[in-house]
Amino acid sequence: EGKGKKRNPLHDFKKTGELMLIKVNKTLEVKTKLLNTTEQCAKRCNRNKGLSFTCKAFAYDRVTKRCHWLSFNSLTNGVRKKQDHAFDLYEKKDYVRNCIIGKGADYKGTISVTKSGIQCQAWNSMIPHEH
């Protein structure tokens, strides 16, 4: 990235057009606000600015220019997908990625078994290997 160039916050998100997530589990949190661009929504989600939860995704209503920050994503239990032409869904790649990059220290995905099917060691366990 060159000097003076700002990084686009949307690079941290996977976009799915015309999709909205509906929470079936009522304990999942959502916050909405009028914002002009998806970049503004992404920046706030990345920083968790003004949110009482960790933002894992946001949906942008192109018609009303309203951002819906979500404490969940499409892989969360208690959530269903709904086709909706007004919305675009943006999910944080860290939470929907099924691969580990580097040493995996920042991995937040859902894979918990090795390629050969062995259950992964919990991070809080020193058995069978020390970290």
Describe the structure.
The protein has 131 residues and is mostly beta strands. It has a domain at 7-93: Hepatocyte Growth Factor. It has two helices and five strands. It has a five-stranded antiparallel beta sheet. A hairpin with a 4-residue loop joins strand 3 and strand 4 (66-70).
In brief:
Helices cover 11% and strands 31% of the residues.
Name of the CATH homologous superfamily of the domain at 7-93: Hepatocyte Growth Factor
Low-confidence stretches: none
Mean pLDDT, to the nearest integer, reads: 88
Rg, Cα atoms, Å? 17 Å
Total strand segments: 5
In terms of DSSP E residues, the strand content is 25-35%
Protein name: HGF factor
InterPro entries: Kringle, Kringle-like, Kringle_sf, Pan_app, Serine_protease_kringle
Keywords: Disulfide bond, Kringle
Organism: Setophaga kirtlandii
What labels would you give this structure?
2 helices; 131 residues; globular; mainly beta; Hepatocyte Growth Factor; five-stranded antiparallel beta sheet
